[in-house]
Write a structure and sequence with these properties.
heterodimer, A: alpha+beta, Rhopdopsin 7-helix transmembrane proteins, 5 domains, 6-stranded antiparallel β-sheet, 5-stranded mixed β-sheet, 15 strands, B: 124 residues, alpha/beta, 5 helices
């Protein structure tokens, strides 16, 4: 026959310890959670005492275990009262203090007196068909009766009444919490209360005691789904662990019981051991499956509905909001939001200045990503004017009819909530989130985090946009500077173009004038043709010469593609020299190249690398003025390439050294430089992963600038 | 009619100096040429020309130095610069101040003009 009462109590001990552990680990910062932990520990004491007492071998041990059981039980109504008052945010009253005092007296009486509380215990249900005989308190002591009547039934009924009254005035979330909590507690208390019946001589087997372990499941559910006790975060593993423990325990008990009761038909040690052994095997064989099953269940039904606010915030502050690439930023936003909140769909729309509408820049699972919102659209006007969100479930609840045009947009976006991203009083974009996969509505808690998030996103997006603009401005400045520098080269370039033109023109003109002046009279026509031919060959040669430099010039003036590629230092240097060389030669500046053999190629933007060299060589040339030497040395050392640009120029005075890389700093005559040269050179160098610094300078002797570039990681990269 | 002026032309561009030599030579001028400044100075000293045509920018000794040297000579020939170097007129002003007779840009607008300038230089 089954010791159902004892086993239900054992089960209660386990589940209550489980929930005590869960609540305490997750919510010990909340007063409610601490009270609740105490409550469940007391229930666990009750369960364990009841389990031991009911199946005790003799009167004395049954008596002892019941006393122990009541160490927990007596405290329950007072703790519950404390919980209800805290939960309903009612002030601690004289009433509550009285309860504590009375409880304390009864509790001490149970500890110190054998007669005042427990009185006696009796073995009953000795002739039950189904259930094993069990020890119960009977007849009880006077304080036991007092406890049962006043603290248990009257006080509890009063507290439940308070909960029911509070339910009517609570907000929706609190309402749901109260609902689940009250149902769970009514079940737990009154079901568990069935074990008081034998104490009053009513010998009905307390089957209802099975609710004592089961009410914890309702509480756990309310915690997870409705943040009961303000516990926001539940770690999956904890729950899985608790569930696993309970299941293993159930499996352990069931076969043991079945084998013991129906197969071996005896309560001796041997049959218990046999039962345990079989259970053990079953557990070992199924534990992995049970764990997976539990993980699936919790993921599917519990955690889809609850997401980790802290994780959301952490992810966004650490990984998303700091991203400066607009494209990456919006895509991360969509991905992380869908991932963490477990959304069916999501999209970010940004205002497009050019087209004057909002269009989708990142999306997941939306129906039509070509959807655009224009300013006069109802939904945009609404957000423009209120800066408020549009939550579909709220509109439905309030029976607000949605115009078809808005409904169409909402449908295309697959949206459940549309939140404006506002910056400086202006809607710069729209965050559109779909339904949660759980089908649960967005709560106030969700809004409390999503609305500020949308605001912060607006800032991040505007930062990213500014960064793009800044990049453009920098590129434009670099280009302007390049053109300005080319301007200062004009003397050299002019010289190089006009010389061949002078030859071509002169040769042709001389021939024509000689012809006109009759100076070729004595020449035969063959001779004249030969003469003309030789002139034409010269003209072609000289024209080609002039064309070559214009080609170099226009090639250099082109803006860079903004892509890094493998370049050979030597080759790039020659190309740059091809352009600055004329100027240097005119000024009688010697140019020396000293490049280490087999030096690694660099992975940089080719045009930008040329610009860097061009600027430095050009600066060196200007520092020299006339007659001098520029030496370029390149060598590799420890995965780095060092390029020194050394001149025999005027040097930089000490007081100017610090300002060298400042914008608009220049020592050149007006018209010779904008002063952006080195400032931009440094930016371009750093953009290409390198560094630049002044290596050495001495007034009257010269200056050396050093460039430093990393050797690209891939071995064997060579320009073909 | 006055005898045609005797000319020395110095330019580092052989094709250019070749063309100048041909033009003036065919028209009965006594013209001597050089493609280096140093060689040019030798020729000037040897021939004592009336007019010297010089390029400004040349490897080695350039037009500037040749001009200085000519100015120290007595009698000193007239100096006409023919150059592709243009820095916005600064150098031209300096050369004229230093006593050159004229500065012409390459390409020369017309060989006839050059011839006229040469003749004008010696007519005074």
């Amino acid at each position: 026959m089954l010791d159902f009462y004892g086993l239900s109590n054992l089960f209660a001990t386990v589940t209550n310890l489980g929930i005590a552990f869960l609540v305490y680990t997750k919510g010990h910062n909340s007063k409610l959670a601490r009270i609740w932990t105490l409550f469940t520990l007391c229930v666990a004491i009750y369960g364990f005492g009841g389990f031991m007492a009911s199946g005790a071998k003799d009167y004395d041990s049954a008596f002892f275990w019941w006393r122990l059981s009541y160490v927990g039980v007596i405290l329950l109504p007072a703790i519950f009262a404390s919980f209800v008052y805290t939960f309903l945010e009612t002030k601690r009253t004289f009433f509550l203090n009285t309860i504590y005092l009375v409880t304390a007296i009864v509790w001490l009486a149970n500890i110190f007196s054998k007669t005042l509380f427990i009185g006696h215990v009796t073995l009953i249900f000795t002739d039950s068909k189904w259930f094993a005989p069990a020890w119960f308190v009977y007849p009880p002591g006077p304080l036991h009766i007092f406890h049962t009547v006043f603290l248990y039934f009257i006080l509890l009924t009063y507290l439940f009444l308070r909960l029911v009254l509070a339910y009517k005035n609570a907000d929706p979330l609190k309402r749901t919490q109260i609902k689940y909590f009250t149902i769970a507690m009514v079940l737990g208390f009154y079901g568990g209360g069935s074990s008081y019946l034998p104490c009053f001589g009513i010998n009905i087997y307390p089957i209802a005691n099975i609710t004592v372990p089961l009410y914890t499941f309702l509480i756990a559910y309310a915690i997870i789904r409705h943040q009961l006790m303000n516990i926001e975060v539940i770690i999956k593993k904890t729950l899985v662990f608790a569930g696993l423990l309970a299941s293993v325990f159930a499996i352990l008990i069931l076969p043991t019981l079945l084998i013991q009761e129906y197969i071996l038909r005896g309560a001796d040690t041997g049959s218990r051991m046999a039962g345990l052994a079989i259970s053990g095997i079953i557990i070992i064989m199924s534990v992995r499956r049970i764990e997976n099953f539990l993980i699936n269940i919790t993921d599917k039904y519990l955690f889809q509905k609850k997401y980790d606010y802290k994780e959301l915030l952490k992810t966004f502050t650490a990984e998303v909001l700091t991203v400066l690439e607009l494209d990456k930023l919006v895509n991360l936003t969509v991905n992380k939001l869908t991932d963490i909140i477990k959304l069916g769909s999501a999209a970010v729309l940004l205002f497009n200045e050019e087209k004057q509408h909002f269009n989708v820049v990142a999306a997941q699972n939306i129906k039509d990503s070509s959807v655009t919102l224009i300013r006069p659209d109802g939904i945009v006007t609404f957000m423009d004017e209120t800066h408020g969100y549009v939550l579909m479930s709220e509109l439905r609840e309030k029976n607000i009819s949605i115009p078809d045009s808005i409904q169409e947009i909402i449908d295309k976006l697959n949206a459940e909530i549309v939140i404006p991203m506002v910056l400086h009083e202006e809607v710069i974009g729209v965050l559109s989130l779909g339904k949660k996969k759980s089908d649960e509505n967005y709560t106030q808690d969700d809004l409390d985090i999503l609305l500020p998030l949308a605001k912060t996103l607006a800032i991040a997006i505007s930062n990213a946009e500014l960064f793009v603009k800044l990049g453009k401005t920098q590129a434009e400045a670099a280009q302007r500077e390049k053109m300005a520098v080319i301007g200062t080269l004009s003397a050299g370039i002019n010289h190089e173009i006009c010389n061949p033109l002078g030859i071509a023109r002169g040769q042709c003109e001389a021939f024509l004038l000689n012809l006109k002046d009759g100076l070729y009279k004595n020449k035969t026509s063959e001779e004249l043709i030969e003469k003309a031919k030789s002139i034409m060959v010269k003209v072609i040669k000289e024209t080609d010469r002039a064309t070559a430099i214009t080609k170099k010039l226009s090639g250099f003036a082109k803006p860079s593609k903004g892509e890094a590629e493998i370049i050979r230092i030597d080759k790039e240097l020659d190309e740059v020299f091809g352009l600055v060389g004329y100027e240097l030669r005119l000024e009688k500046i010697e140019f020396l190249k000293n490049i280490q053999k087999d030096i690694s190629d660099l992975f940089v933007d080719k045009k930008q690398f040329q610009e860097i060299l061009f600027n430095l060589i050009r600066n060196a040339g200007q520092a020299i003025g006339e007659k001098g030497r520029i030496t370029i040395t390149a060598r590799e050392e420890g995965r780095k390439v060092y390029i020194d640009v050394q001149d025999t120029g005027s040097g930089i005075p000490e007081d100017k050294v610090k300002q060298l890389f400042n914008p608009f700093f220049t020592t050149k005559d007006p018209g010779k430089g904008t002063g952006l040269g080195l400032f931009i050179v440094r930016q371009v160098v750093e953009k290409n992963g390198g560094r630049i610094h002044l290596k050495d300078t001495k007034v009257g002797e010269g200056t050396t600038f050093r460039l430093e570039f990393p050797v690209p990681a891939r071995e064997g990269l060579k320009v073909n | 009619m006055m005898a045609k002026p005797r000319i020395v032309a110095i330019d580092d561009e052989p094709e250019f100096i070749d063309m100048i030599e041909g033009y003036f030579g065919l028209r009965g001028y006594e013209i001597n040429v050089a493609v280096r400044g140093a060689k040019g100075i030798e020729v000037i000293k040897e021939k004592s020309p009336d007019v010297v045509l010089i390029d400004l920018k040349m490897p080695g000794i350039d037009g500037d130095e040749v001009l200085k040297l000519i100015k120290s000579m007595n009698p000193s020939p007239k100096v006409i610069f023919i150059t592709a170097y243009d820095d916005g007129g600064k150098t031209r002003a300096r050369l004229l101040k230093m006593g050159s007779y004229a500065c012409l840009d390459k390409p020369i607008p017309s060989l006839r003009d050059l011839e006229a300038t040469v003749n004008k230089a010696v007519s005074k």
